[in-house]
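Q: Could you write out the predicted structure for this multi-component system? I'm mainly interested in how the pieces pack against one another.
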Amino acid sequence: MPAELPGWQELPLAGTVVPGLAERPRTGSYRTGVRPAVTDALCVDCLLCWIYCPDSAVILDGTSFAGIDLEHCKGCEICAEVCPTGAIEMVAE
Amino acid sequence: MARLKMLAANEHGTPPLGAGHSLCQGCGIPIVVRTVLDAIPGKKVVVNATGCLEVATTRFPTTAWNVPWMHVAFENAAAVAAGVESAQRALRRRGLAGEEATIVVFAGDGGTYDIGLQALSGALERGHRLVFCCYDNEAYMNTGVQRSGATPFGASTTTSPTGSVGLGKLQERKDMTEIAAAHHVPYVAQATASHWHDLALKAERAAAADGPAFLNVLSDCPVGWGHEPRRFKEILDAAVETRFWPLYEIADGEHRLTYQPQDYVPIDSWLRGQKRFAHLLEPEHAELVRHIQARVDADWERLLAVSS
Amino acid sequence: MTAQLMTGGEVVAHAMAQIDPDVVPVYPITPQTPIIQHFAKLVADGRAATEIVNVESEHSAMSAAIGSALAGARTITATSSQGLALMAEVVYIAAAMRAPVVVAVGNRALSGPINIHCDHSDSMLVRDSGVIQLFAENVQEAYDAMLLAVRLAERSDVLLPVFVCQDGFTITHSAEPVELLDDETVRAFIGDYTLPMPLLDVERPTSKGPFAMPDYYFELRHQQVQAMACALPAIDELGWELARLTGRPFSAIEPYRLDDAERAFICLGSTAGLVKDVVDELRDAGERFGLLRICSFRPFPEAAVADALAGVSEAIVLDRAEAPGARAPLYADVAASLFGADLELRGHVYGLGGRELHPDDVHEIAEGRCGLYVGLRGASWPA
């Protein structure tokens, strides 16, 4: 085990984790060669990609589509599949 | 009428379940969680049974949850939630509680239909005010795709595998929606991860019910069902269009379909494209497909007959 | 303080009514039923404002108790025997999640065969679970222990479930004179329930009950070892504080005529009352016997036990539970405490499934004329 992990006294009581203090693993590493690419001109801000992204990787500005968080996108391609205008395509990384 | 913009606004800038979890590519579960929690107004507290959702979202020292969340064990989510609900009620009565929260339970089909059934039944009977949402992906997925009481007839799983002799699971799945309804609770509904609008309306009604509410939500599993992650909506829509998974609700004892397919779509559309059903589509197993179709047809007729 | 005649079950119910917990999830099992029945009646008569949750099994009782306690509500439950066995999975989790639930236990034999009478096998099942276990000697001490248990469980350096154990039927169903404190004194002693980061504090969300891989499990569990270590002195501290109100001592061990004893009995629970009588008889006959009653079984007061028995030449442990294939549980813990000490150590198993222990049996044990299994019909093994 790496020596820099915390000792038992430094851990929160009963392993209770506070969201604001917890790290968020970069799950973008799940992708295997393709990533979503968005053509802004075709986007109608319907938010279907947002609700159907299992990884909360569709970024909103208020309640409007603002992009895709590639640090966490796992490349499942659901967004490309459900987008009604073809604004999202899967492209090589 | 729910709108996606309203659901997004209800997050107030922070998703209830955020990024960084280790659920599979294309997993339906977090879609269910987000839709349900965003549709419920006000504060939410989540109780989660052991399973894919719990394990993948809370590996210490991380958490993907931004709402209060508790996990205790596999079979007792409903009992834990009953305790939380009782605590809230007791504290409110003494004037000691903060803002009232809707208690939402998330459990897989294993933690609902099988090992979780007793605790759920008790909580429903006692009338606790909570929303129990089952994400039903039709097997014990987290432990490696073993069959559960929710696994449909004919499905191949790792404990009901096909082989030179085996044909997959040969028992019918439980009708958990009707089991819940038989407890005479105010609101019960069947939904899918892919019909966000239908699910959001049902989640809102569930939270507004003055007593226990049960949501049974079909959720796909690319790994366990054997399909490409991107076909999430296509496959779950097929479950609805073939009437394998009717969208309906039972509010105060009254059945009401929330969607009726226009055309008769044979069950093959549901079975096709999922490796767990591939053996059924071989010519020598046509009898099994006819059996499944007959059951779906009969169940649909029965549902139509009791629905308003 | 006026003396009243009450059974152990009634007195625990009265203690609960005075404590007035927020939530009590319960499921019935003999011999705990008088506790929940009397308490339900007290609540129905407005003597407490508790939310009673009549759950559908003991596993759900403990599960609901964790949910309630960690949500921010003071929570008490009660069980025995098979009920404790059924909830055992969740008992471990309650300790790990640091849920300060008080559990009244009417000690009863574990099946099989099924038996509703007293022995300590149910408590022994969860001896490694990380919960605190206090054993009352009589009805009075069961009352005192319930009050102390609330304070002990909720101490910020402890935060563990506390089991208040009383012998099934012998204490739960037998009436003895007891003195109760008045309601205000109890309220003042137990104070308010304050838990760090309750689940229902929606402004400060937390994730409770994590999944831990090998890199963290060991360290997360070690917090419980620390909590148990803090609990041991806490029992005596709180015992002193309570004694100032009741006039009765309460501590992890009770030495009886041990100061100048040559030989000593060691036991848990109501049997101590009987043994004290026999010790007096033996003393009258010129034998320098004493008794070490263990009140806190978990945490086990190893140092105090060794210290109390420092002067004796023979220690005789009486276990009301057995561990087939190994040493009986109390014997094992006492032996570990006395390792390296210069004395004879002997252990007996008695009273399983409610089999009565008579003063004559204790005399035979004292005289060394009794087999390992007290009163067992048929040949003893080993002979």
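A: Regarding packing and overall arrangement: The radius of gyration of chain A is 18 Å.
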